[in-house]
UniProtKB/TrEMBL annotation, chain A:
<dbReference type="GO" id="GO:0005886">
    <property type="term" value="C:plasma membrane"/>
</dbReference>
<dbReference type="InterPro" id="IPR000515">
    <property type="entry name" value="MetI-like"/>
</dbReference>
<dbReference type="GO" id="GO:0055085">
    <property type="term" value="P:transmembrane transport"/>
</dbReference>
<feature type="transmembrane region" description="Helical">
    <location>
        <begin position="239"/>
        <end position="261"/>
    </location>
</feature>
<keyword id="KW-0812">Transmembrane</keyword>
<keyword id="KW-0472">Membrane</keyword>
<dbReference type="InterPro" id="IPR035906">
    <property type="entry name" value="MetI-like_sf"/>
</dbReference>
<feature type="transmembrane region" description="Helical">
    <location>
        <begin position="76"/>
        <end position="102"/>
    </location>
</feature>
<feature type="transmembrane region" description="Helical">
    <location>
        <begin position="114"/>
        <end position="135"/>
    </location>
</feature>
UniProtKB/TrEMBL annotation, chain B:
<keyword id="KW-0472">Membrane</keyword>
<dbReference type="InterPro" id="IPR035906">
    <property type="entry name" value="MetI-like_sf"/>
</dbReference>
<dbReference type="Pfam" id="PF00528">
    <property type="entry name" value="BPD_transp_1"/>
</dbReference>
<keyword id="KW-0813">Transport</keyword>
<feature type="transmembrane region" description="Helical">
    <location>
        <begin position="67"/>
        <end position="95"/>
    </location>
</feature>
<keyword id="KW-0762">Sugar transport</keyword>
<dbReference type="GO" id="GO:0005886">
    <property type="term" value="C:plasma membrane"/>
</dbReference>
<feature type="transmembrane region" description="Helical">
    <location>
        <begin position="107"/>
        <end position="130"/>
    </location>
</feature>
<keyword id="KW-1133">Transmembrane helix</keyword>
Amino acid sequence: MIPTIDFSAPRHRAKFGYLLLAPAVLLMAVIIVYPILLSVSISMQDVRIARIGDSGEPWTLENYQWLFGSGETWHALWVTFKLVAVVGGLSVIIGFATAMLVNQKFRGRAAARLFVALPWAVPEVVATVIWAWMLDSSFGLVNWVLLTSGLVSEPIAFGSNPTAAFAAVCFVMIWKGYPLMSIMLLAGLQSIPEEQYQAAKVDGAGVWQRFWYITLPNMLPVVGVTMVMTTLWVFRDFAIIHVLTQGGPLGATTTLSILTFEQSFEFFRMGQGAAVGVLTMVLCAIISRALVGRMAKSVH
Amino acid sequence: MQQRHPLNTIALYLTVLVTCGLLLFPIYWMVVTALQPASNLRAYPPQFWPADPQWNVFADLLAKHPFMLWFSNTILIAFATMTISLAVSILAAYALSRFRLRGGQGLGLFILTSKMLPATLLIIPLFAIFRSTGLVGSLWSVVIAQATLIVPFCTWMLKGYFDTMPPELEQAALVDGCSPLGTIFRIVLPVAAPGLAATALYAFVVSWSDFLFGRTFLTTNDESWTLQMGIASLKGEFVTEWNVIMAGSIMASIPIIIVYLFLERFLVGGLAAGSEK
């Protein structure tokens, strides 16, 4: 007979806890820990198409020599940072403004909150094809608006002009990125105690003073968290750039993620691709330390 | 609350309307483009209202492309991912929230960090694993790959939710002779229903919207594709039929837009609970 353990007995409580954790731990060991170790080992071998098991290739650092020696990596790093700065900056501004707007008291506020963050629910690929059509160089709406308002004299070629293509990627990313900011910043705004505003009003503080001395200081931690989250998203996102520009033209929109994919699945140099990926992972780990530090307090 | 000046009220409503109008214009444009006759798409100036809506564009789409297969593949993947991730995450999140286990803190940190892994790196070793196990081309490869990102997020989100629930109810149930596992299913989960809904919604939306994993693991033939891959491939065709693409886009986004509209309240609460703490 199988000995039964009474898990409700206090001395067996911990065992029950471990039992609950077991499926998650096993799953993560197989689909996260092992793949990470495998990718580090692939990045240190001259592998074209990776498979598991001993490839017979000697350990080498030549992928990392290529990584730091080639202009491609540094260019991709520069593109990624530019994208983080533009997308992070503008989507926090739009997110903050929309959150402030739907935090006002008015009839229909619930509906406004729902609609203002709606792009969050649009899949990235769908968002990208909509914008690709709006930015079309011959029949796109954006060019029509720019031409009729006299801002440009000839249509902008969002597909072939490097600066315009970068801007196009920014449009899509900001449109997809601001709703989450708006949602989280609204939650932050709602947690500011109403008494602070009332006290400031009694002291005669105007709208701007209340924003500057109450709203902003209270919101800084939340803004920090959302900025880090957006940065990590821009670092790791693939679908938008791949569908919109495929990293082009002339590498103008090739971020680290795009470079990883390109090396591994288009040029079939998985060793080099893995090296770029490992670099991205290390950078993401450094960036997320800011976030983890704050969140780790709640682990226990 | 003091009374607002009527002019200010009007200004506020105008601002809200204009803001929503501008931000949601791409969604409107998707619908208008889909319903235009193809010849109108090259009209100058652009037509902002489909005077003569062409509903047969949807029939066109279904006739020219294996769209229903893409649809059912996507639904299968999303449901499988959601179910598996939720089942695993519920147990782990409950354990992390209620038990002080040796190594629990380390595991929590690990889960938190693995939310931030770049997926473009993970696909390289996963591709090697799936190739050796013959999973490349199977829908399961995408389900497994998505679990790498979704399980950590769901666990973290649910743990945040369980932390907000008082443990007294469970203790009372245990004293009354309910088994520990029974306590989770009969006491904890019903109370945590809003948190579960938010987490399930999140998993569904992320899985539905995936492009990278499908693009990497399902390349053999277009019958095993997902919706997102199908739509991306339409854009890459030599002659881009924007009305057909937009019709596909509508069908690929409507299910999750509906889910979002109904469950947004839970989602906002869940995201706030899972991310801010």
